Amino acid sequence: MSLNDIRKTIMTEQRNMEMNAEKENESERIERRILKMRAEIVAIEKETAEIRKETEAIRKEAEAKWNKNNQTLVELNQSLAELNQSLAELHETDKRHGKQIGGYGNQIGDFTESLAMPSIRRILDQRFNAVFQGDVNYDWEDQDGPLQVDAWGISRNGAKEVYLVEIKRTFKRGHIHQVRQMVKRFRSYYANYSDSPIYPVIAAVKISDIDRRKLWEMGMYVIDIADGVFKLAKPPAEIKFEPKGGYGMPKGVQRAVPPLNLVWDRESQQRKVR
């Protein structure tokens, strides 16, 4: 072998060694990269497991809250149903008692019957020369609705004149129709007064000036109630008040009605005698 051949051989071996060294370095780099990727995968899997664990905990908590809220809603609906049932029963009870005791207690409000009736009796006696008859509370099947009258009186003058007293805590315009119906039913329940003059008398704790004038214009008496004192109100001169006793009277029957200044007043008559 010549010297040149030896040199070539050495150079070839040297290149081979260098190539092998490069291959070994590349393998090491690949191995390190693989190890790094494996470590990253392990970290990701660990993080994913933690996320799944937290998600499951959140899901269970949300499910527990949903079940609790759903149970609360069920209990609330049950309570509401029981309340509605109680209200319905209370309403029915109120209707039954309403027919028994009438509307007197709710109408008079601030006063008791023991306080109101003596005042009504006094006004009927002194201002209308009428005998106090108490209250009325009937509900007959053969009649057109129940009859409830807080107080009434019959005139002593022999004309069979009747005064029906309706007591209201707060008077409303719709009560006018109620009073007229009361007069009409009174004539039906009390057939002997069917063609008699029947005068409505409204006693009110609260009543507007407009409604008071409206009642006078319709020929109805007004009793003002203030601080437990009952007083027959006197209409102003410009209204020209004329009591009307013909409400609900059968057609064709006409009865004269006395103006306010002819209404009997026992105190005034007693003063004249003295």
Describe the protein's architecture and organization.
The chain has 274 residues and is α/β, with parallel strands linked by helices. 55% of the residues lie in helices and 15% in strands. It is built from 6 helices and 8 strands. It has helices spanning 3-101, 104-108, 113-128, 175-189, 209-217, 266-273, and strands spanning 130-132, 136-138, 147-149, 151-155, 162-170, 198-206, 221-226, 229-232. The strands form 2 sheets. The protein has a 6-stranded mixed β-sheet with strand order 1-4-5-6-7-8, sandwiched between helices. A two-stranded antiparallel sheet has the order 2-3. Helix 4 links the parallel strand 5 and strand 6. The chain is rod-shaped and about 170 Å long. It starts with a helix and ends with a helix. Residues 98-110 and 255-274 have low confidence and may be disordered.
Keywords summarizing the entry:
alpha/beta; two-stranded antiparallel ribbon; rod-shaped; 8 strands; six-stranded mixed β-sheet; 15% strand; disordered C terminus; 274 residues
The gist of it:
The chain has helices at 3-101, 104-108, 113-128, 175-189, 209-217, 266-273, and strands spanning 130-132, 136-138, 147-149, 151-155, 162-170, 198-206, 221-226, 229-232.
The gyration radius over C-alpha positions equals 50 Å
The largest beta-sheet arranges its strands as: 1-4-5-6-7-8
Apparent shape: rod-shaped
Number of helices in the DSSP assignment: 6
Rounded to the nearest angstrom, the distance between the terminal CA atoms is: 179 Å
Order of helices and strands: HHHEEEEEHEHEEH
Instruction: Kindly estimate the percentage of residues that lie in beta strands according to DSSP.
Output: 15-25%
- The average pLDDT value, as a whole number, equals 81
Structural class: alpha/beta
- Sheet with the most strands? 6 strands, mixed
Q: Catalogue the unreliable spans.
A: 98-110, 255-274
Beta strand count: 8
Helix content: 55-70%
Instruction: Give me the oligomer status.
Output: single chain
